[in-house]
Specification:
The chain is an alpha+beta fold. Helix content is about 20%, strand content about 30%. The protein contains four helices and six strands, in the order E-H-E-H-E-E-E-H-E-H. A six-stranded mixed sheet has the order 2-5-4-3-1-6. A hairpin with a 6-residue loop joins strand 3 and strand 4. The radius of gyration is 15 Å and the shape is globular. The model has no long low-confidence stretch (mean pLDDT about 95). It binds a DNA duplex through loops.
Length: about 150
Amino acid sequence: MNYWLFKSEPGTFGVDDLARAKDATTPWDGVRNYQVRNFLRDAIRKGDQGFFYHSSCAEPGIAGILRVVRAGYAEAAALDPKHRYFDPASDRASPRWYSVDVRLERRIEPVIGLEKLRKHARGALSEMLILRRGNRLSITPVTREEWRFILSLA
DNA sequence: GCCAACGTTGGC
DNA sequence: GCCAACGTTGGC
């Protein structure tokens, strides 16, 4: 089983939105970066866990724990001409974009803030991609050690 | 294949 | 709103 960090802006879609969704489950869609697309298509498996990270907001940080309940499949939004994520270059036979389904396992309250994570940027979290300057990937891998360490901060 | 311009991201 | 960093685009 692998661990990931899923990043989203709560103003667009945050933990509260996921909690309200049916079965607290949603397709993680809208990814338009090829490196992250490859994670969705090839690496993220059913049963994997992830942190739900809130970015571009008043309190950036980890706000919940997710479970992947469906592995990568062709992103539906890219195939829907009426959807804002529609991409005419994607089709069902050879999809360009992928999504996985995630379910909210639990919230983390209070949020484990970015500030708190940074305190360990030279220690246990020295390899943490989210702490790297300029990192823009919306999904990043998390090691088992990082996962456990961060949970201990909660 | 290069690279400048542009758009997006995300912390502050 | 600002700015740094990065990915993508498109002319050449």
